[in-house]
Design a protein that fits this description.
heterodimer, A: mainly beta, five-stranded antiparallel sheet, about 0% helix, globular, B: mainly beta, four-stranded antiparallel sheet
């Protein structure tokens, strides 16, 4: 089952612009994570936000979490061509060691 | 360097054949996972293991089998019963802290692309 639904499915922006992608989920969670995947490669962890946190920053990344709406957003500021990749959210819950991934957003940053 | 190694990078399966994908980690992680990714899609969980000699089915386990005889290794066998095996397979691991559930970041291998001849 796919816990997370992400939108948009695809996003194309100019270098220097900000990119925002959203993730919605269905069940109670104890954390939400964002991953990046370059074409044909494995996933790389970007940031983890716990259910008792509302916002987290890491470099040019800003993540927000709204547990009442069961949604999260990832903002990439001042995007670069090297940010071109697919971005996935994943949720973890208490009582299980399963991580459930969303469907992903394909980001293309044009130089 | 610590990490997760998947091999081979590309694998071809003939009809009726079983094939095994290798996943080895030297991160001393207890938990290991296998995911399947179809083109343009998200990741779907096949099997996961929290500890040696124990594993659980994920959402799409039919046609697959695993073993966890050593902490470092979690091989995945794609059996002939899996009629649509063409996909990108990803192995991941994470520390397991008892009682906290899925609460840590995942470390991924570089993947194996499986195709049918």
């Amino acid at each position: 089952s796919q816990q997370g639904e992400e939108d948009p499915q695809a996003l194309s922006i100019q270098e220097g612009e900000n990119a925002t992608m959203n993730c919605s989920y269905k069940t109670s969670i104890n954390n939400l994570q964002w991953y990046r995947q370059n074409s044909g490669r494995g996933l790389v962890h970007l940031i983890l936000i716990r259910s008792n946190e509302r916002e987290k920053h890491s470099g040019r990344l800003r993540v927000t979490l709204d547990t009442s709406k069961k949604s999260s957003s990832l903002l990439i500021t001042a995007s670069r061509a090297a940010d071109t990749a697919s971005y996935f959210c994943a949720t973890g819950s208490s009582g299980t060691y399963k991580y459930i991934f969303g469907t992903g957003t394909r980001l293309k940053v044009l130089a | 360097d610590g990490g997760i190694t998947q091999s081979p990078k590309y694998l071809f399966r003939k009809e009726g054949q079983n094939v095994t994908l290798s996943c080895e980690q030297n991160l001393n992680h207890d938990a290991m996972y296998w995911y399947r990714q179809d083109p343009g899609q998200g990741l779907r969980l096949i099997y996961y293991s929290q500890i040696v000699n124990d594993f659980q089915k994920g959402d799409i386990a039919e046609g697959y089998s695993v073993s966890r005889e050593k902490k470092e290794s979690f091989p995945l066998t794609v059996t002939s019963a899996q009629k649509n095996p063409t996909a990108f397979y990803l192995c991941a691991s994470t520390p397991r802290y008892r009682g906290l559930g899925a609460n840590e970041k995942l470390f991924f291998g570089s993947g194996t692309q499986l195709s049918v001849l």
